């Protein structure tokens, strides 16, 4: 009886661990990846739109000065030349979203654009 109870409890514990991992893996797999490169003074995105949901903006600074990337109220930290950062943003509402570099003067110089969520 004690052995049966121990096996049963071990099975429940394994299931409790496996289910959240499966769900988390599914959510991450469903994210849309967008590559973003930034330099003085423009961004280049490998796509201009994505379906609503989780979007991973993979920002690489290919310029000579620090930049960041901001969209839908979230932004990367300041990224030094040659470095990268990933920004995970969940956008549930379709629409047009403005992205910018928030370093003073960079958006005015051209580091901005519109990303469409379908």
Would you summarize the structure shown here?
The protein is built from 1 helix and 9 strands, in the order αβββββββββ. It has 118 residues and is α+β, with helices and mostly antiparallel strands.
Describe the protein in words.
24% of the residues lie in helices and 40% in strands. With 118 residues, the chain is of the alpha+beta class. The chain has 2 domains: 1-30; 31-117, Cupredoxins -  blue copper proteins (Immunoglobulin-like, Sandwich). The strands form 2 sheets. The chain has a 5-stranded mixed sheet with strand order 3-9-8-5-6, with no helix packed on it. A 4-stranded mixed sheet has the order 2-1-4-7, covered by helices on one side. Mean pLDDT is 86; it is low at 25-29.
Q: Uncertain spans, ≥5 residues at pLDDT below 50?
A: 25-29
Number of beta-strand segments: 9
Percent of residues in helical segments?
10-25%
Give, in order, the helices and strands.
HEEEEEEEEE
What is the level-2 CATH architecture name of the largest domain? Sandwich
CATH superfamily descriptor of the largest domain: Cupredoxins -  blue copper proteins
Mean pLDDT: 86
Query: What is the strand content?
Result: 35-45%
Largest sheet, in brief, is:
5 strands, mixed
Instruction: Count the DSSP helices.
Output: 1
From the spread of the alpha carbons, the general shape counts as globular
Number of domains: 2
Q: Report the top-level CATH class of the largest domain.
A: Mainly Beta
Distance between the termini: 57 Å
Q: Taking Cα atoms only, what radius of gyration do you get, to the nearest Å?
A: 20 Å
**What strand line-up does the widest sheet have?**
3-9-8-5-6
